[in-house]
């Protein structure tokens, strides 16, 4: 992994943390943290791991064109990927997830990476929907915010349209991609690029079957509704239920996760926190309470899945040096 990617993320995260925490009395934040009823974190962590199981179920549908795999077979692979995203820069966990899947089940990495990319697009659409549902709760909402959400939604819908095009007209898509590759790239790179195109076309085939498509959409909505339930449990730890309800937390969830598309340090430090604190204060939560809540929420989203992912990684016999092997294998497909 190139060091400059890491350091750019660190700089962005540091800048966003300064904005998020600037002017706060951190002693008051610490007092809020001490007064929290942390027993509510236990069901919060539990439901989060249920949402991970639903993610594994969804991934199974996306992988169907290549191989039928069960939730049991995919669960640990998904968790390893989450761990990778939490400790490596540039979402390298997605590459690690594809690498482990190839080691275990001989699924080509370019294909599995295409399904992961499709996951992210569908997730983004649901997050945008959560934001649009929750935005009317925010008083005096700037028009610029609506414009950004609308633009992001259009881009996500366009990306889904591209995947549908790959699914419904694969041969035409490959011919078009081949013509562009022949015009724009050196001869020595063309075979590898065409291999990636072919795998991406294959990865879009799950959208061809209505039953698989319905399962993907339903499971994605279910994933984020369950994850919002974790936000609700953490909210109870801070006694914020008198100010917030589930719809408000859908807005917080959507905004915080959409912000994680911004390059940042591993674990989405800064991006998640700025969006979470900013959205909660816009909903009328006092800034100290919003900060304490967001920091604890971020910690319980990060720590349990990272620890479990490290356990699965050791059980798999993977070493940190295997990350480089994942990068090399990803380049080869």
β-sheet strand percentage: under 5%
Mean pLDDT: 87
The shape is globular
Q: What is the chains' assembly state?
A: single chain
Summed up, the domain count is 1
Stretches where pLDDT is under 50 for at least 5 consecutive residues are none
User: Can you write the helix and strand succession as a string?
Assistant: HHHHHHHHHHHHHH
Question: In terms of structural class, how would the helical and strand content be classed?
Answer: mainly alpha
Helix content: over 70%
Description of the structure:
With 333 residues, the chain is mostly helical. It has one domain. Helices cover 78% and strands 0% of the residues. It has 14 helices and no strands. α6 packs across α11. The longest helix is centred in the C-terminal third of the chain and has 30 residues. The mean pLDDT is 87.
């Amino acid at each position: 992994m190139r060091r400059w990617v890491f350091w750019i993320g660190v700089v962005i995260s540091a800048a966003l943390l300064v904005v998020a925490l600037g002017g706060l009395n951190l002693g008051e934040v610490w007092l809020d943290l001490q007064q929290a009823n942390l027993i509510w974190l236990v069901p919060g962590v539990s439901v989060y791991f249920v949402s991970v199981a639903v993610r594994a179920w969804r991934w199974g549908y996306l992988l169907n064109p290549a191989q039928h795999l069960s939730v049991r077979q995919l669960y640990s692979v998904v968790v390893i990927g989450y761990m990778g995203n939490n400790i490596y820069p540039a979402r390298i966990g997605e590459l690690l997830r594809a690498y482990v899947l190839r080691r275990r089940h001989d699924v080509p990495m370019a294909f599995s990476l295409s399904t992961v990319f499709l996951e992210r697009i569908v997730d983004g659409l649901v997050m945008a929907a959560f934001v649009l549902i929750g935005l009317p709760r925010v008083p005096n909402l700037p028009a610029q915010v609506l414009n950004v959400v609308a633009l992001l939604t259009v881009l996500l819908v366009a990306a889904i349209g591209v995947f549908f095009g790959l699914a419904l007209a694969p041969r035409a898509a490959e011919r078009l991609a081949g013509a562009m590759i022949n015009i724009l790239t050196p001869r020595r790179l063309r075979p590898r690029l065409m291999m990636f195109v072919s795998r991406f076309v294959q990865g879009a085939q799950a959208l061809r079957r209505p039953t698989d498509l319905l399962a993907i959409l339903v499971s994605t909505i279910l994933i984020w509704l369950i994850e919002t339930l974790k936000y609700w449990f953490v909210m109870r730890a801070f006694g914020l239920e008198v100010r917030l309800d589930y719809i408000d937390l859908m807005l917080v969830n959507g905004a915080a996760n959409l912000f994680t598309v911004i390059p940042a340090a591993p674990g989405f430090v800064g991006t998640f926190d700025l969006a979470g604190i900013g959205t909660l204060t816009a909903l009328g939560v006092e800034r100290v309470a919003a900060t304490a809540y967001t920091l604890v929420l971020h910690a319980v989203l990060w720590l349990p899945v990272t620890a479990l992912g490290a356990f699965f990684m050791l059980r798999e016999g993977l070493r940190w040096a295997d990350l480089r092997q994942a990068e090399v294998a990803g380049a080869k497909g």
